[in-house]
Design brief:
2 domains; alpha/beta; 16 strands; 6-stranded parallel β-sheet; disordered N terminus
């Protein structure tokens, strides 16, 4: 009897979970691309959008954050982003009645917006000569650290070599 109850419970709950997961996946699918542009068309709704070395064009609704590294974000016409918009080494452009619900952050680029465009949170732009410094300093630090480790290992190996008599 207990096995029959478990079977009935599982057979009724699992299809409901599968249908609800599929519906949630279709409504708020997230996009991530490397090197290929992302286009969110008018009337389209998506979740988070992430792009590396490419451009994001938003004419529809992003129900999350939009992030571009090495590319720009264009929010056109009636485009909306409910979360934050972040561009690193790229630009953010808001046209006409575009809306951002959260913060807009640009490092190494510019923010341009139309007169009626709205940003609900803070606007932060770090451009000009600071962008290469912010991006290169961690790599220079790591490169110096690796060079120091290599130098120490080579120095230890030279002193540990046996001397022939």
């Amino acid at each position: 009897m207990i096995k029959l109850n478990r079977f009935l419970l599982l057979s009724s709950v699992l299809p409901l979970l599968a249908v609800s997961a599929a519906a949630a996946g279709q409504q708020n699918s997230s996009y991530s691309q490397v090197g290929h542009p992302i286009n969110i068309e008018s009337g389209q709704q998506v979740g988070d959008v992430t792009c590396v070395a490419c451009t994001i064009h938003i004419r529809g609704q992003v129900n999350g954050d939009a992030t571009a590294v090495g590319g720009s974000i264009f929010i056109e016409d009636q485009g909306q982003v409910s979360g934050d918009v972040t561009a690193v080494v790229g630009n953010v452009r808001l046209e006409k009645t575009a809306k951002i619900g959260g913060d807009a952050t640009v490092v190494g680029g510019d923010i341009r917006r139309g007169e009626e465009a709205q940003i609900g949170g803070d606007v932060t732009s770090v451009g000009g000569t600071w962008a290469p410094i912010i991006i290169l300093v961690p790599f220079l630090f790591l490169g110096t650290l690796v060079a120091l480790v290599v130098w120490v290992v080579q120095r230890i190996r030279r002193t540990a070599a046996p001397v022939a008599v």
